[in-house]
Amino acid sequence: MRVPKAEAIRGGVSDCRNRNLQKMFQLIGLGEQAGSGFLKIYRNWQLQHWREPVLEERHESNQTVFILKMISLVPEKAVDDLKAELGESFSKLGEIERLALLTAHCEGGCVNHGRLKEVTKAHPHDITVALHSLVEKGLLISEGSGRNTFYYRPGRHPMGDEMFGAGGGFVRSRTPNI
Is the distance from CB of 5 to CB of 56 less than 8 angstroms? Predict the structure, then answer.
């Protein structure tokens, strides 16, 4: 590649090897000289929740290899469930927000900041902003404070009826009396 790997992924720099081929694609409306191709591919892979593309520079063979695996990082059923429940608003959420909802959906109904740090490369501040945004939108409810805060979907408290009975009192122990 004539552009460093990091710059190609970040986008904004175009340095084409074959200007005639580039011009041909521009004339038929399938190309641009914005240097945004890799960026668009990475963004679309994230939207599909697929594994991140791998860009390898093989210096010994003078090759650049771009590996695009369409392997989902989340169960397709979970995505379908949330799309059915939330409609188009699910697709309009940011990547971290979608990931938070999917994690809560797949992992016992709740998610916390620490767990999201494990499943995303996002900055901790961005995770905090995304979680607060989901609470403001009514898509998650927060409970606890500080590092003990966890988030769950409305009507899906992770403790459910385990702690409290239908009448609001404590549930009796399930261990037999001796």
Answer: no
